[in-house]
Amino acid sequence: MKIKRLAILFCLLATASAIMADEFIRINTNNIEMILRVKSDNGRVFQSYLGKRLKFESDLLHLPQGGEVYLTHGMEDYFEPAIDVRHADGNASTLLTYVEHKQETAADGSQHTVITLQDKVYGTQVRLHFFAYADEDVIKTHTEIVNGEKKPVMLEKYASSMLHLTGGKYWLTEFSGNWADEGHMSTAPLNFGKKVLDTKLGTRANLFTPPMFILSVGEQATEDHGQVMLGQLGWTGNFRFTFEVDESDNLRLISGINPYFSSYELGAKETFTTPEFFFTMSYEGLSRASRNLHNWARKYQLKDGQKGRLTLLNNWEATYFDFNEGILSTIIKDASEMGFELFLLDDGWFGEKYPRNNDDAGLGDWMVNSKKLPNGIGYLVEEATRNGIKFGIWLEPEMVNPRSELYEKHPDWVITQPNREIDLSRNQLILDLCNPKVQDYVFSVVDNTLKENPGIAYVKWDCNRFVTNSGSYYLSADKQSHLWIEYVRGLYRVFERVRANHPEVSIMLCSGGGGRIDYASLRYFDEFWISDNTDAFNRIFIQWGTTHFFPAMALASHVSASPCHQTGRVTPLKFRFDVAMSAKLGMDLQPMNMTEEEKSFSKKAIEEYYTFREIVQHGDLYRLLSPYTNPRTAMMYVSEDKQDAVVFTYLLEKVINGGNNQVLYLKGLDPNKTYRLNELNKEPNKWTWFYELEGKSYTGEYLMKYGLRFPMYNQFESKIIRLTAE
Ligand code: DGJ
């Protein structure tokens, strides 16, 4: 008996000493933590923990080993690997062990951890980078892969990151859609096996789904409860997320470039750097997770995230291609009279030999169409200046129509497979940004337009097709599978150069609507055009989804005509304004077609927007009632000091008897402050039930506990309510 006890004690001591010798690497923010364990016996590195930040060092010993931090192909192939290298001798296995790690404060103040792993036989090195942003609970991660051999190797898989979750149950919310129909949210449980979210469309990569997801862990998270991760890949091209649940209900999450037709030859001693994967985790539900990302983005990622954004009037839905100098001058005047800050000239202003009078010609020929605009762009810039507003211009510099002088000169500059018919989409082809000469050209389009017209304050950068026939004349036959990667790298080189020369110009990223939405592009862009669907009803859903990841200041939203050009739906002007004002306000219609009442309503609406846009663009977002589950939807923004807030609510379905009485339980207010309520953007001479609350004051506690209560009756009725602390 005694001997048996001694044996057990001995075993326990042995295990403890082995565990004791393991090294732990802690990557943490204020509230979340990832713990990696370097195994003393074999040098392999595992992720032992990802969850709430732990307090006691002694608890680390109790953590399980966890999953391999960057699972390799060719050794233990139970699960999808993060990396798959074909070594120069044809060997397809990699085994990574710990070399060293460093932790330091990065230039932007985040905690930077880099862990170096190496394959002892082949010298392949992997450096895992993690940047932890303490206050925002955001972790940004990417990987560098170094070929340590004397000959090239083939990378078949090269994830940005691999994460392990052990919550037992998981729900994935994905975003899906199509042109003018972006951002549908749908949630489903993740059961055993794999779920993949990916795209292989290249340029307009996010047409069907953007590189973002919401993952609930343990239970299905709500706005205010539950453990939830929001993840986003910063890559303006093909991406892939793989969610793999194993037989013990552990979840492996791999994110990165889509390896589809993307084997990458890495030369001797060369380094491959993956895109960045960003994630936040919240234990207080979705709303908190979104605010984490918004705060982080405004501070660290979004171009000029601390500055304001301009309101604008865009002539796309006003004129389409059918305009001239006179028509534009009148729109500029109307835009200025209504109070907009900028006029944006859209597609159709260029092309001489092949004038751009519709979408089948002219792309690539960025000289002004002198028939439409005899006095050039400069005249319109002056016209805008004379009217006290700024001027912006549309470009689609990556594209070319076969009916263009550019294509006549450079038919080999486009992406297409030799020996195949060219495959047109919107009558256009994509310029091959793998080619440095094409990069120079695309850069020069933007640079020259801005240099020749120094008054241009804004650019809308469009991209209206995705890649098919994915072949490059520039890349050699054995490097064709580099196309998807080299295109995006070429694009970023162009973005860098544009930004170096024109840091002050605001640029909107558009891709036939929301076909390109990710945090890597937002380093260079001030805002996104998230959909060509300007129907305010549809927009509520699209904005609801997109604000899970991106702050309102980056989401351009335009008031357009009724009936809406895309859907034919008729909605009140106030409703259209109230929806657009919950993001970054603009307009996309012909003011000439408005009545005097509509113009004066618009003028007043814009004036009022200026009194609260700061709260929308820089405040904290709280989603109150989802349009997916309620006939009435609502959300609000609260200023950082909690002195000001603004609530938006919209009725999506008419309620005949009794009206819709859904309570708006406000959030994010200071319970001890007293707030005065005022309705904004009111329709003149129209009585509504809110009048009973108008001008009254309530404590934050009351508004959050008892709520804001007033009925709404008619479909597309909307309200904006301002709260001011007294
Ligand atoms: C697609 C964009 O999304 C529209 O807003 C408009 O700019 C057109 N392209 C112009 O061709």
- The averaged pLDDT comes out at 96
Helix-residue proportion: 10-25%
Helix/strand class: alpha+beta
Report how far the terminal alpha carbons are from each other: 77 Å
Taken from the alpha-carbon principal axes, the silhouette is globular
Q: How many beta-strand elements?
A: 37
Main beta-sheet annotation: 10 strands, antiparallel
Rg to the nearest angstrom?
Answer: 28 Å
Strand fraction: 25-35%
Put simply, the count of helices is 12
Low-confidence stretches: 10-15
Structural account:
The protein has 726 residues and is α+β, with helices and mostly antiparallel strands. Helices cover 21% and strands 29% of the residues. The protein is built from 12 helices and 37 strands. The strands form 7 sheets. Strands 6, 7, 8, 9, 12, 13, 15, 16, 20 and 21 form a 10-stranded antiparallel sheet that branches. Strands 22-23-24-27-28-29-30-31 form an 8-stranded parallel beta barrel, surrounded by 6 helices. The protein is globular, with a radius of gyration of 28 Å. Residues 10-15 have low confidence and may be disordered. The structure holds (2R,3S,4R,5S)-2-(hydroxymethyl)piperidine-3,4,5-triol (DGJ). (2R,3S,4R,5S)-2-(hydroxymethyl)piperidine-3,4,5-triol binds at residues 316, 346-347, 394, 462, 464, 510, 512-513, 529, 532.
In short:
Helices cover 21% and strands 29% of the residues.
List keywords for this structure.
single chain, 726 residues, alpha+beta, 8-stranded parallel barrel, 21% helix, binds (2R,3S,4R,5S)-2-(hydroxymethyl)piperidine-3,4,5-triol
